[in-house]
UniProtKB/TrEMBL annotation:
Keywords associated with the record: ATP-binding, Cell cycle, Cell division, DNA replication, Nucleotide-binding
AAA+ ATPase domain sequence ranges: 55-209
NCBIfam families: orc1/cdc6 family replication initiation protein
A molecular function (GO) term: ATP binding
UniProt function note: Involved in regulation of DNA replication.
Stated name of the protein: ORC1-type DNA replication protein
Keyword check for Nucleotide-binding: yes
Boundaries of every Cdc6 C-terminal domain copy: 303-384
SMART domains for this protein: AAA, Cdc6_C
DNA sequence: TATCCACAGGAAGTCGTGGCCA
DNA sequence: TGGCCACGACTTCCTGTGGATA
């Protein structure tokens, strides 16, 4: 057995592709950000009052996934902090990961070295603690709330309102907010008071085109990969695939990194276009597998019901899915959920891209959804059967 | 043109679990 | 230890939708 481990380690240890693999990871902020000069300039202009220890305006940043919103924001704040560290501090919170008002406040307090329990306190108490803490620290605190739309859709904009009003309760300190969102229409859904306060300044990040993505990849490849580990045609392919995917730089870098890992695993000294193709399939498979294996039990059962139903026809209605689901639940001897809940589960599966659910009006025959699979049946089955013993035993 | 169908989906509430604090 | 709170999963109740049909 240890022979296998030694063999694998010796192959990977001799890696000929990467010089610094971590430079291709999404959280790495490079020293230069090509094609984002205008946005950097605009943010610096808005945050310039920090140089005089004055509170800058709140900012709202829009743009699709992978357009550099987070990287540019972190880049500007990092560089301003190098120059004016005595004037302000900044705290970054990803509100998709910390997706409740409680977790956001807890994250901010933890960044300020204040220990917070995982649960058990009211959000009002956390807010009180935050105000107390802020009154002890630096005069100005910049709070970056990334992917803020996801949290607000779930829990409302109350926490944003409280943040925008917090300055009234602070004696020495002041808060400025930077909200980052993928949803251009998100701000329209906010309470007018929050909207006017949070959106003092707005910046839009347009998607990258294929040429711009190519420049970004070339710059990053130069830093992260060994010389001659990659050719221009491979970079072009990564850029083209990511450009097709609404100009997503994160996707382009992921493709390059995973293609490099595949090439390295195979003992090659150069990444080829076929490695990129393999990387594309692997990234998609991993994403889907992770989503599927962490689904709640009834969501998995609904998916199995869809798989069974789609053996006889190309699409199913919500009612047909629910019927098939009830039969399965009955067969397994588990209590079923209501149709209302199944409707929500179908929406959730649609949102994460596992199924396609199109609302259709069939006149006298009512309004429903036409449901079909968006990923291969094999991947779904594998992930569900491997992650749930009850379903596995029923299936086998 | 009114009616009908098969849901969609919003709002408010319940339940169980896990955890804090006085 | 009891009261309180967060949170996810779920239920109940309700109104809205829009094209086919009588």
């Amino acid at each position: 057995m240890s022979d296998i481990i030694d063999e694998v380690l010796s192959t990977l240890g001799r890696g000929k592709i990467f010089r610094a693999r971590e430079l291709l990871l999404p959280d790495y902020v490079p020293e230069t950000l090509p094609h984002r000069e205008n946005q950097i300039r605009k943010i610096v202009e808005i945050l310039a009052p920090l140089a005089r220890s004055e509170k800058p305006s709140n900012i709202f940043i829009y743009g699709l996934t992978g357009t550099g919103k987070t990287a540019v924001t972190k880049f500007v704040l990092k560089n301003l902090y190098k120059r004016f560290s005595s004037n302000f501090i900044y705290i970054y919170v990803n509100t998709r990961q910390s997706d409740t008002p409680y977790r956001i406040l807890a994250d901010i307090l933890e960044s300020l070295n204040s220990k917070v329990p995982f649960t058990g306190l009211s959000t009002a108490e956390l807010f009180r603690r935050l105000i107390r803490k802020l009154n002890e620290v630096n005069p100005i605190v910049i709070i970056v709330l990334d992917e803020i739309d996801a949290m607000v859709k779930k829990h409302g904009d109350d926490i944003l309102y409280r943040f925008t009003r917090a300055n009234n309760e602070l004696n020495k300190s002041k808060i400025s907010l930077i909200g980052i969102t993928n949803d251009v229409k998100f701000v329209e859904t906010l309470d007018p008071r929050v909207k006017s306060s949070l959106g003092e300044e707005e910046i839009v990040f347009p998607p990258y085109n294929a040429e711009e993505l190519e420049d970004i990849l070339k710059q990053r490849a130069k830093l992260a990969l060994n010389e001659n580990a990659i050719k221009d045609d491979v970079i072009k392919l990564c850029a083209a695939l990511a450009a097709r995917d609404h100009g997503d730089a994160r996707r382009a870098l992921d493709l390059l990194r995973v293609a490099g890992e595949i090439a390295e695993r195979e003992g090659k000294d150069q990444i080829t276009t076929s490695d990129v193709e393999k990387a594309r399939v692997e990234i998609e498979r991993d994403r889907v597998y992770e989503i599927l294996s962490t689904l709640p039990f009834h969501s998995k059962l609904v998916l199995i019901a869809i798989l069974k139903g789609l053996r006889d026809k190309s699409t199913l209605t919500t009612g047909e899915v629910y019927e098939a689901y009830l039969k399965l639940a009955n067969k397994m001897g588990v209590e079923s959920v209501t149709q209302r809940r199944v409707s929500d589960i179908l929406n959730e599966l649609d949102m994460v891209g596992i199924i396609t659910a199109k609302v259709v009006n069939r006149g006298r025959y009512g309004k429903t959804k036409e449901i079909s699979l968006a990923v291969s049946e094999d991947i779904i089955l594998k992930a569900i059967v491997e992650s749930d013993e009850r379903i596995a035993s029923m299936w086998n």
